[in-house]
Design brief:
The protein is an all-alpha fold and 65 residues long. It is 89% helix and 0% strand. The protein has three helices and no strands.
Length: 65
């Protein structure tokens, strides 16, 4: 009976540590992935032009008419 009480109390006291052990790696993985995705999007945008210049030229031509 004493062991069960000790285990329950230990779980309650270590709850903050368990929370840190789980959330810190998740935050690191999220930030790393976020940076990689932004970098990849920038590289793809530089390699594959999306035609923004063409759209701007069309708008200027329509305004002149």
């Amino acid at each position: 009976m004493l062991r069960i009480i000790a285990i329950v109390l230990s779980v309650g006291l270590l709850q903050g540590c368990i929370h840190k052990v789980v959330t810190v790696p998740v935050k690191v993985a999220y930030k790393t992935t976020k940076g990689v995705v932004k970098g990849t999007a920038a590289v793809v945008g530089a390699v594959i032009p999306d035609g923004d210049d063409d759209d701007e030229d069309n708008k200027k031509n329509k305004q002149r008419d």
